[in-house]
Amino acid sequence: MKNFKATFIIDGKIKGEIIFSSSNPFHSQSERIRDAKIEIELQQGIIPSRLSQLKVIQLD
Fold first, then answer.
1. Residue 48 burial (CB < 10 Å; 0-12/13-18/19+)?
2. Cα separation of 9 and 59, whole Å?
3. Which one of 9, 16, 42, 45 has the fewest beta carbons within 10 angstroms of its own beta carbon?
4. 2-20 pLDDT, tens digit each
5. What is the pLDDT of residue 28?
6. Over 80: is that where the pLDDT of 21 sits?
7. Which has the closest alpha carbon to 14: 59, 58, 34, 44?
8. 36 neighbors 4 (Cβ within 8 angstroms)
9. DSSP labels, the chain
10. What distance in Å separates the CA atoms of residue 9 and residue 28, rounded to the nearest whole number?
């Protein structure tokens, strides 16, 4: 399991961060972003289309 932190921005303002795990360490950056969008919707209830920017970094 790899842990990631996603920082999400809406309308030019940082709205929050989430931590999520991925069981596939070989995911591409685009797959990680997709996973982050799913987790943001599940954890925060924010629809991915509202995100104006998303930054995903690996924690470990």
1. middle
2. 19
3. 45
4. 899 999 999 989 999 999 9
5. 86
6. yes
7. 44
8. yes
9. -EEEEEEEEETTEEEEEEEEEES-TT--HHHHHHHHHHHHHHHH---GGG-SEEEEEE--
10. 21
